[in-house]
Amino acid sequence: MKRFVRGRPFREPCKVILIICEGESEEIYFNNYNKKEWNCIRIYTPNSSYTDPINLVEYAKRQKQRLNPETTWCVFDIESKPQEIIDKTIKNAGKNIYIITSNPCFELWFLLHFQMITSTLNNYDTIQLLKKHITNYKKGNNIFKLIEDKTTNAIKNSRRLNDSHNSHDLNIYNVSCNPHTKIYQIIEHIFDILHRS
User: Fold this and answer.
1) What is the pTM (predicted TM-score) of this model?
2) In the chain, how many H helices and how many E strands?
């Protein structure tokens, strides 16, 4: 939203969103939201080299202190991670770092742009299903332009999936809560900032 100072437009300060990811695919995807025309928002995805959730959260805390973002998100996959590690990560994150998980993997978010899926998946199966829609998909590819116009569908499917788990009183952070992804929460937050600006 534009305000005016002495008759001249005053631009609201840019909202900084910090997203700490465990993988390259996630970083590439989120960096696509740094669009020139969206001068009200900046996405930072500093490379951490950490892949375990506990160290990702500790790295997020250090980056949060350095950048002072509006929000801080920590993104990682659940597949093959021990439940006690996930529980400890959530506890260490506290209320100031949002934990965003996908089970089994981040590619589920991509898949939900094309179809709803409720059956239990592993990493391999998820990517094979995704390849039915994007035949040459490989981790690290920038497929943003291929899926951007289907983002609303991905949000809707993610919500439906997670609402189904919640209706059965399943803890979304439990390793048995498969499939699920909370990536849509970051995207909705970005869209909300754009809507308010």
Assistant:
1) 0.91
2) 8, 7
